[in-house]
């Protein structure tokens, strides 16, 4: 009899988003006339930009004719897109060979698949609060997980510590859910720590395009020594609205070796075994994101989300509530008022002002007492949610 992977039994139920869905559904059943202001969503609300749509249409037409038709695509990505992405890094002073860039179907897929590169006996450090997939993917693989709690005292950007060592180190910057961003000095400390210990950083840069302060690193490869200790996973989902279109990329430098094995070569071997590449049409759409026109258009869309962030931040400033994020990230992480628990605050906002956010506790135990707002909602909903928040909480302050 086949034995299933029993580690699945150790997974906690994905109660966070299921819990939110269940509570909002129950509320609407009781109050069918009410409209909900959804500030919890991690999905984008704006459509793909014009440059991408034109490229997608053009690529569909290519597939209609024998001379321009593409069958299987190279497993690691089309050369035109790998070169384009390497060029995007070069603009920020990071030199990458095109074959250090791997095209993927998105960061989630890659965060799970990349674990094929590491022995199951290796441990993983997750800085919490964290995007839940980091923990779950390692639970499935049966790895030991080291939870490193962060908090208000370190701005949710903890320093490495001898007491929290692991083989794989997950770093997400700009962070989901806290919106906090590592500066160069703090990120360099993690790179040095990884090189000293032979650890490997999995750097999740899904929100790099939201960074607006000049001196903050968009890529871990802007730091000295990162080429020998880091893999960077990126996505066009939030950058360019590709959540439903699916495209991402992963950078694995040639210098990354452990135990005489080269991780870039291992990933080529993995991809050529486990995928037949990402669709030609989608890769053409993805390449359009990096053209001058595409960059201008995606930044116009990001600007709309940033306005949402500003509206929410102004509301919290008026109320004198502590928060981080919002400036260089599409998430705002606030302290729940009056010592409320995060689910308690969730219920309070839902029942009193019909605003839905995400309870911080769902991102790890140290998220208790915090609450996440997403800035991907509709501007008119965000404005009304902020107005209601000030009206409700202003009574107390
Ligand atoms: N990494 C982080 C930190 C995210 O927040 C998300 C999505 O919300 C992802 C990865 C997944 O992105 P993708 O849509 O490319 O799978």
Describe this structure in words.
There is one protein chain. By secondary structure, the chain is of the alpha/beta class. Helix content is 38%, strand content 14%. The chain is built from twelve helices and 15 strands. The protein has helices at residues 15-30, 50-62, 79-90, 107-113, 133-140, 184-197, 237-240, 263-274, 280-289, 292-319, 342-353, 379-394; strands spanning 37-38, 101-104, 124-128, 145-149, 168-172, 200-204, 230-235, 248-251, 257-258, 261-262, 323-325, 331-335, 355-356, 358-359, 370-374. The strands form four sheets. A seven-stranded mixed beta sheet has the order 2-8-7-6-5-3-4, with helices on both faces. A four-stranded antiparallel beta sheet has the order 11-12-15-14. A two-stranded parallel sheet has the order 1-13. The radius of gyration is 21 Å and the shape is globular. Pyridoxal-5'-phosphate binds next to α4.
């Amino acid at each position: 009899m086949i034995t299933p992977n029993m580690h699945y039994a150790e997974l906690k139920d994905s109660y966070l988003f299921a819990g939110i869905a269940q509570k909002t559904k129950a509320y609407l059943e009781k109050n069918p006339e009410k409209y909900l202001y959804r500030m919890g969503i991690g999905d984008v609300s704006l459509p793909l930009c014009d440059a991408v749509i034109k490229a997608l249409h053009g690529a569909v037409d290519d597939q209609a004719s024998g001379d321009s038709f593409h069958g299987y695509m190279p497993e690691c990505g089309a050369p035109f897109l790998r070169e384009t992405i390497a060029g995007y890094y070069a603009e920020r002073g990071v030199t990458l060979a095109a074959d250090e860039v791997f095209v993927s179907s998105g960061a989630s897929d890659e965060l799970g698949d990349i674990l094929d590169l590491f022995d199951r006996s290796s441990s993983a450090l997750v800085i919490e609060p964290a995007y839940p997939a980091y923990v779950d993917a390692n639970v499935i693989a049966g790895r030991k997980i080291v939870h490193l709690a962060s908090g208000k005292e370190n701005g949710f950007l903890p320093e490495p510590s001898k007491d929290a060592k692991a083989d794989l180190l997950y770093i997400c910057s700009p962070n989901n859910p806290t919106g906090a961003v590592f500066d160069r000095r703090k990120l360099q400390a993690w790179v040095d720590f990884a090189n000293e210990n032979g650890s490997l950083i999995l750097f999740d840069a899904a929100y790099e395009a939201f960074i607006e302060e000049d001196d903050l690193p968009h890529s871990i490869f802007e730091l000295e020594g990162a080429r020998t200790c880091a893999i960077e996973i990126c996505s066009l989902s939030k950058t360019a609205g590709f959540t439903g279109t699916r495209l991402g990329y992963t950078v694995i430098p040639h210098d990354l070796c452990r135990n005489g094995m080269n991780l870039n070569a291992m990933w080529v071997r993995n991809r050529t075994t486990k995928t037949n590449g990402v669709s030609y049409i989608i890769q053409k759409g993805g390449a359009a994101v990096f053209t001058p026109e595409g960059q201008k258009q995606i930044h116009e869309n990001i600007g709309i989300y940033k306005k949402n962030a500003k509206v929410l931040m102004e509301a919290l400033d008026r109320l004198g509530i502590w928060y981080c994020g919002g400036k260089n990230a599409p998430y705002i992480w606030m302290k729940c008022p009056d010592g409320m628990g995060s689910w308690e605050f969730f219920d309070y906002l839902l029942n009193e002002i019909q605003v839905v956010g995400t309870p911080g506790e769902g991102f790890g135990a140290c998220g208790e007492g915090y609450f996440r707002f997403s800035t991907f909602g509709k501007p008119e909903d965000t404005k009304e949610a902020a107005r209601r928040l000030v009206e409700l909480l202003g009574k107390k302050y």
